[in-house]
Amino acid sequence: MAHMTNPLATPDQIFHRNSLDSLPVELRDAIFLSTQCLTQAAGILLQFPQSVTAQANVLLARFWLIEPMMSHEFSDVSAATLYLTAKISPCPCTPRDLSNVYAYLLSPSSTFLSSPSNHPPKNIPRDYYQSETAYHAFHSRVLSLEHLILCSLSFDTTVSLPHPLAITYLQSMDFLHFPKEKITRRAVEYLNSALLSPQMLYLTTQPNGLAVAAIYNAAKDVGAKMPECEWWEVFDVDREDLGFLVVGMRSLEGWVESMRGDGVLGRRKGGGMITRKEVRAILGSDRPKEKEEDPELAMARRMDEKMKEIEGSAA
């Protein structure tokens, strides 16, 4: 059963995560959401199976439990994690393909995280053209981060996803006597969305719990009739854990909308991936400005200091 479980984050890691970089909670969540979405977008453009991209999302979340977010550029961490995950999968990608995809997603021509109300940007190939110098610099950063990620995770890159378990559980319940394509798709959608959760559900819950919660939510959404007994206990999930996961998954859509509406991502002037430079600017603007000293008071203070200095030297 070892291949069906994951190493979970300890309470100390979750508690001390906030003290790694001293970022405000809302800003940290915005960085996490943006980077995970960037990883998903890159996986789609690289035509990776969702299993590979989802594993990269989990490894990225594990890495940020140990390393401060502001230590490296967020897009570089995303690229390095995806590159590492693909390398040990049946579908590796070349560094050039990875570089081209991230150059496009980070360019003004990309629609990544752009506001739905804005007009789509014009596709200008010059925006995401990469010179040899830029490519080699990107490749060097990715390789350096790949080594750091492996060392931080003690070379444990094993990730067990709940998606196969969810399908197996549905099969055992005859898909709740509902069209299997519809209820299965909805359950998988919940599992994919949970990768973006700031509660880090994949780091605090084993795959069987995530699978059961996704099935429960999917059945509620499509109107499938669930067994009247406490069927989740058959899959080794407690009622309290199930309730927490159900609420966490169902609240994610509203949270993302609020982040892109009145939250950090919505208050940004433009779309695209958030950067460390932008975060530093936000932190700088949030700091209270020092009150300017009155010129006359400043002059009097300097004169007093000068007089004390003269008196001290005379004595």
Automatic annotation (TrEMBL):
Residues 284-315 are annotated as: Disordered. This is Cyclin-like protein. GO terms for biological process: regulation of transcription by RNA polymerase II. GO terms for molecular function: cyclin-dependent protein serine/threonine kinase regulator activity. InterPro entries: Cyclin-like_sf, Cyclin/Ssn8. Residues 299-315 have a biased composition (Basic and acidic residues).
